[in-house]
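Lab manual, section 2.4: Encoding a predicted structure.

Procedure: take the sequence of the chain (178 residues), apply the prediction step described in section 2.3, and record the output as structure tokens. A sample record is shown.
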Amino acid sequence: MSEKTLFPESEIFTKARPLKLTIKLENDFWLRMAKEVIIETWCSEQENIEDIVSDLSELSMSDSGYEMAKDLENGKCDWEIDSELIAFLENLSWGKIDEYKKLVKEWVTIHNPQPIFSIGTKLMVEAGLNSKIKTGQTIWITGINKDTAEYLYWDDPNHNGGYVKTYEQIEGSCTIII
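Recorded output:
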């Protein structure tokens, strides 16, 4: 008697794309940033590193470096604020974005998602993609980033580059126009 399976062997289940850093990765990021703060002497080594992590992680990443530095004046640590610290703070949000991109690239390496649309494919938007590309519009795939499993798209087939969305977002929001 043959063994029955619930799903065919060809059916592969892929863990969903990470949408943000894990708690551990985020904590590791803030700890590295706190150590850099100590190395650069913006806080003394006598400061509790958990307090530095707390001060940094509570900052609004949408603020400017200057606004963040002003917020640190009311932090747990005794901050030595200078122009280099302000520049460091300006780049914090980019550092978090870079950490997230590394996580996505690892996910892509493990799961190897493949695009179902190719460059030049004409699509009908079934669910709005952004404030400029709405339901019912026609778009074209203008590029593919396999490292991050993302499509570039635009409402002009000859456009170089375009808006960026994940494979899942485009494939779930659009249908092919033949």
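Check your result against the sample. Residues 23-111 form one domain.
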